[in-house]
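The freezer alarm interrupted the setup, so I double-checked each line after restarting. Inputs confirmed:
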Amino acid sequence: MSADIVAVVIVSITGGGGLLGFGPCHSRRPCATHLQRTSDGLRQWVPGRYRLFPEEELGLPVWWDGGFLPEGWDVARRIAYGLADSNTQAGRELIELAMVMRPTLEDVEELGAALVVLGWGARVARLVRADAHGRLEEVSDAG
Amino acid sequence: MPAEIVAVLVVSAEGDPGGLQAWNRDLGGGPPLAVLLDGGWAGYHAAAQQQAADQWDGEPWEMSTTLALPLWWDGALVPEGWDRAQRVAARHGLIAPRRDGRLMLDAHPSIHDVALLAHVMVGKCIASRVVRLARVDGRLVEP
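Predicted 3D structure, all chains:
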C-alpha cells in the first residue's frame, strides 16, 4: 500500500498554529487543506490554504507528488529536533532522523507519528490518488 | 570599535539560479526574506507594513526591490533561511554525504558557519554577495 501513497500530511491540531505559523522574516510554511464540503460531496485534500469552514482541516505536507517536500520536512524535523529528549534512546533516534536531508517515505511517516505523540499534530494523513482526476484521498492505516 | 554583526544575508545571483528565494506556489511555502528599504534592511512582513497599502497585495515582493535570504537575524539563526541555504548548497555538491550515503543537515551553526557558506555560494555564482548587518540607531544597516 505504501507504494500508492503520493502525499503525507501532518494534520494540524485545531486552533494550534505551531505547525503552520509564520517563521522569522515571514517565511511561509507550505499547507494543504482537507476540504469537506465539495460540490460532489467527496472529501479531498488539496494543496494550499483554503479553509472555509471550521470542520476543514489544515496540515503540513511533508511528502507531496511522490517525493519529500523540503520546506515541509524542514519545519517538521526542526520541531522534532527541538522536542526530542537526548537522554533517551527514542529521543536520540528521533534526533538522528531529524537531521536527515533527504528522507524516505518511511522517514516522513515516522517523524510525523512522533510529532503526533509529542502533541504537535492531530494525526498523520496518508494520501492516494483516488480517481482519474487526481483527487487526493486519505487512507486509513488498514488501507 | 567595529559594530557588532547581528545579521547575515545572502543576495541571490541574477535570476536566482540556485533557487535561494524560490517559492512553492502550489502549496504556498516560501523562504524567509529580508528587504532593503531606504538604506536599511527589514524582515519581509515589517517591510510590507512600511509600504503603502495599495502597493502590498500579499504576493512575493517585486524582484526590482533588493531581496535577500536571511541566515542570521537579530543575533540568532534563522532556521528556515539556513535550511534553504543548505539545500541549495547540497544541490550544488557543496555538502558531502555521510559515510552511509545520507546527507545530513547541520542544525546549530555559528554565525561564522553561515557566513562561510554564504561566501562559498558567492564563489559558485549562486549568490551575488553576502550582506553583514549591524544595528545602528535601531536600523539594520551595513556598517
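Quick read of the result. Chain A is about 25% helix and 25% strand.
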